Amino acid sequence: MAQLRGMMVCVTGASGFIGSWIVKYLLDKGYTVRGAVRDPEDLHKVEHLKNLKGANQRLELVKADLLDNSLVAATAGCQVVIHTACRCPEANFRITNPQTELIEPSVKGTLNVLKASFSSGVSTVVMTSSVGAMYLDPTRPLEQTVDESCWSDVEYLVQIKEWYCLAKTLAEKSAWEFAAAQGNGIKLIVINPGVVMGPVLQAKLNASSTHILKYLTGCVKSYANRCQAYVDVRDVALAHVAAFEDPKAFGRYFLAERSIHRARLVEMLAELYPQLPVPKICSDTKNPEAVPHKICNAKARQLLESELINIGKCLFDSVESFKEKGFL
Ligand SMILES: NC(=O)c1ccc[n+]([C@@H]2O[C@H](COP(=O)([O-])OP(=O)(O)OC[C@H]3O[C@@H](n4cnc5c(N)ncnc54)[C@H](OP(=O)(O)O)[C@@H]3O)[C@@H](O)[C@H]2O)c1
């Protein structure tokens, strides 16, 4: 592993929630990091990166947008590219044109990263996909375990207007097709996290952190009759690093500690913070409580060489960091 340490790793979406933790761990491990961000001068978005230990010596921030030709320069001289950048709208954000707002940027952006990486001679690309590219298939029985072999059904995603999951599914499929067409020219590894929570490093709150914060401020009075798989951002970031460090790593990695109904999530929050206005009622009073998918995270545990962080601890650390950063 020691010979890897001097090499340069490019991280797209470096200023984002997951990207920031990846940059932190890369710097901690002694790598030289090129953080690709849309505006390196925007201190609100990048100051936390500049303040990371080792950043003065080994972090370079470069301007890059997924949809222009800046990626070739961003990836030049790098052995590894970690591609996390993607538009991640909040759940209540109204999408008027899914094709131009989400699908094209996600698919084209991913292909642009891969093409630039290939032309720059990058050996490994680690891409952040999502559980959204795995679990939404109406033909899969609920008792069947969700793991790396599962793909969301594209027609179903269109039918239920799950535009973000559609964008992630199509982008991941395009990435695998591109990598296969290059033969052994480039190694692709994909990380598919569930909903990512945990302490925030950045100053601008991201969509999945807002998912937790909204249950703490009194702004929502009920929770949805839904189940989701959850994972801590520190596990997600470490998995991206392990994915290129471990020569045995291959294919997709499903990162989730467990899948639970929203009721269990708010119960955990209420137990941890009884003084906060956590909702106690479900918005759906007609239907039975939704049942969570069975999940298998064995491949992720093998990659991380540990158990995943417990969701209770993850929630506590999330909320403590919201308080520390003044979000709560
Ligand atoms: N958080 C989750 O629950 C979760 C779960 C599964 C998968 N993921 C995936 O994980 C990745 C990171 O998500 P996150 O939670 O860290 O979100 P985030 O905090 O919103 O970070 C996304 C980053 O992508 C950048 N970006 C967006 N569009 C771009 C473009 N056209 N060109 C260059 N950069 C662009 C954003 O830059 P700006 O700040 O300039 O907009 C931001 O830095 C995404 O691929 C997401 O789909 C996230």
UniProtKB/TrEMBL annotation:
Gene Ontology MF, one: oxidoreductase activity, acting on the CH-OH group of donors, NAD or NADP as acceptor
Start and end residues of each NAD-dependent epimerase/dehydratase domain: 9-249
Any single Pfam family the record assigns to this protein: Epimerase
UniProt KW keywords: Oxidoreductase
Presence of keyword Cell wall biogenesis/degradation: no
Oxidoreductase among keywords: yes
Name the record gives this protein: NAD-dependent epimerase/dehydratase domain-containing protein
